[in-house]
Design brief:
The complex is a heterodimer of chains A (about 260) and B (about 250). Helix content of chain A is about 50%, strand content about 10%. With about 260 residues, chain A is of the alpha/beta class. Chain A has one domain: P-loop containing nucleotide triphosphate hydrolases (Rossmann fold, 3-Layer(aba) Sandwich), CATH 3.40.50.300. In chain A, strands 2-3-1-4-5 form a five-stranded parallel sheet, sandwiched between helices. In chain A, α1 packs across α8 (about 210-240), α3 (about 75-100) runs antiparallel to α4 (about 110-120) and α4 packs across α7 (about 175-200). Chain A is globular. Chain B is an alpha/beta fold and about 250 residues long. The model of chain B is unreliable at about 1-25 (pLDDT under 50). The chains are: A alpha/beta (about 260), B alpha/beta (about 250). Chains A and B meet through α2, α3, α5 and α7 of A and α2, α3 and α5 of B.
Chain lengths: ~260, ~250
């Protein structure tokens, strides 16, 4: 049965959550969103109902976070908690209802990105783990791993440097390039650590889009097959005749014939 | 002070009071900041805000630099809280988290820097409000306490203890009806706002009572005359002002 990372929120019944929760993690520019945009129609074509969700998309806190980030004066603790509010709003109002309805939930980032960001900002590990102890354990976490050297050209030649993606709140006074390198390197190291702690499946995100997509498809199918195989086994077990009651019946012997 | 076993980069300092869950709130060692932090707690209608404003005027008159911070007032966060309340979007968990976000912003932006500057900070409601309300809403007691592990420990935390009926009689007529979340209407305890308020605030009082020994709250009998209560409060505050820095706002 589905589990949480420690605490169960009021109003959630774990045995009701029949769907699959698949997480795509990775740093900024790893190509997560591109892959989710490929995975969703593919899964729908296979006949699955899919919900996709991602950071700051909650109706409650999404807008508030965007506004708070504009001012560049969002503190570290405040930031962590604002994102946690956004996450829990989506967990309770999107993810849980979708899982209850048997959907495949594809989430662009999950608690791990939020934990990594908080940890590189010096937050207490136990503090952040406690907060996200209310999160559901996913069926799989695909971590799109990319090195800093491969990441740089993607960022520079697409959207350019962003204040928060460059960790400028951590390195005020640095130029954005230096800050970006230090911040993303720290995030990558933190992700690697989380990868071991939470058992991520690593996907090489340096490869081209099609190759990554092909790899992800195989991995997603494996998650879904695991499900049908379990169902199959459960059905087989249910059909097994009850030997204990049969034993009470007289055992036919060939001698009696 | 073990922060996390992860990677440490750059010269940034670690945010001061973030140590284990609630360790700073229950700490017995003397305060780590030169300022003073006095906070008031109690249910709606306990008269705590009146008492705090009288204390505020007295401290100012004595020449101290005093700053007041109210629950739920962060300029960065309060619009989100308002939206959630207006549209009734808040669950016990998001109610808890958005209030902790508001409190975090006030802590990072004003309460801690001011305490470090030696100011006297007065808070109308503090983390104990969250502990009482969130637990009354069904959140896990330890989870909520850990959530606020970054809070500074108050110099004195006053709890204005008042019987529920006294508080209700003060509130009736003083405002137009009971508000949805204040009355705990989201918990569907009763369809009648006053009855819901009674049941919800009753649970909150139970939580406050448990916190008195847990956090060493200073109990003030809020059924006494305003003047008697204020004299008691000033007497207790005075003993913590001996070495306080006089940040004179006015000459």
């Amino acid at each position: 049965m589905r589990q949480t990372y420690g605490k169960l929120l009021p109003g959630i019944k774990l045995s009701d959550l029949a769907g699959k929760l698949i997480v795509i993690e990775g740093t900024d520019g790893a190509g997560r969103t591109t892959q989710i945009n490929l995975l969703k129609p593919w899964l729908e074509e296979l006949g699955h109902a899919v919900l996709d969700t991602g950071m700051t998309r909650s109706p409650l806190a999404g807008e508030g976070i965007r506004r708070a980030k504009e001012g560049n004066n969002l503190g570290r603790v405040t930031q962590s908690l604002f994102y946690a509010t956004d996450f829990v709003d989506r967990l309770e109002n999107e993810i849980v209802p979708a899982l209850r309805a048997g959907f495949i939930v594809l989430t662009d980032r999950y608690i791990y990105s939020l934990m990594a960001r908080a940890m590189v900002r010096g937050m207490d590990g136990d503090w952040i783990r406690n907060i996200f102890g209310v999160a559901l354990k996913p069926d799989a976490v695909f971590y799109m791993r990319i090195g800093i050297n491969e990441l740089l050209p993607r960022v520079i030649f697409s959207r350019g440097f962003d204040y928060w993606e460059s960790g400028m709140d951590l390195f005020p006074g640095h130029n954005m390039y230096d800050s970006f390198c230090s911040y993303q390197a720290a995030l990558l190291a933190e992700f690697d650590r989380l990868s071991t702690e939470y058992g991520f499946e690593v996907v090489d995100a340096v490869a081209d889009v099609r190759t990554v997509f092909a790899q992800l498809k195989v991995k997603v199918l494996r998650v879904l097959e695991r499900d049908t195989r379990e169902e199959f086994v459960a059905r087989q077990l249910a059909e097994v005749p009850d030997w204990s009651s049969r034993r009470k019946e007289p055992i036919p012997t060939s001698a009696a014939d | 002070m073990d922060i996390n076993p992860g990677v440490r980069i750059g010269p940034f300092e670690v945010f001061l009071p973030l140590r284990g869950p609630t360790s700073s709130l229950k700490a017995r060692e003397p305060r780590e900041y030169p300022g003073r932090l006095f906070i008031v707690e109690g249910i709606d209608g306990s008269g705590k805000s009146t008492q705090l404003s009288l204390l505020h005027k007295w401290l100012e008159a004595k020449g101290y630099g005093v700053v007041f911070s109210e629950w739920n007032s962060s300029p960065l966060v309060k619009d989100t809280t308002k939206l959630g309340k207006k549209k009734k979007m808040l669950t016990p968990a998001t109610f808890s988290l958005i209030h902790s976000t508001d409190f975090a912003d006030r802590t990072e932006r004003s309460i801690l820097p001011l305490l470090n500057a030696g100011a006297i900070v007065l808070c109308d409601r503090y983390v104990y409000t969250a502990f009482a309300r969130d637990v009354a809403r069904g959140m896990d007691r330890e989870w909520v306490r850990s959530l606020y592990g970054f809070a500074a420990k108050p110099t004195i935390a006053f709890y204005f203890r008042v019987p529920l009926e006294t508080a209700i009689s003060r509130l009736v007529g003083a405002r137009d009806g009971f508000k949805y979340y204040e009355a705990g209407m989201d918990l569907e305890l009763s369809d009648d706002p006053e009855e819901s308020f009674r049941l919800f605030q009753g649970r909150i009082i139970e939580e406050y009572e448990k916190m008195i020994p847990e956090f060493g709250l200073t109990v003030i009998d809020a059924t006494q005359p305003v003047e008697t209560q204020q004299a008691h409060v000033r007497h207790l505050v005075r003993s913590h002002l001996d070495e306080a820095k006089h940040l004179r706002v006015r000459p």
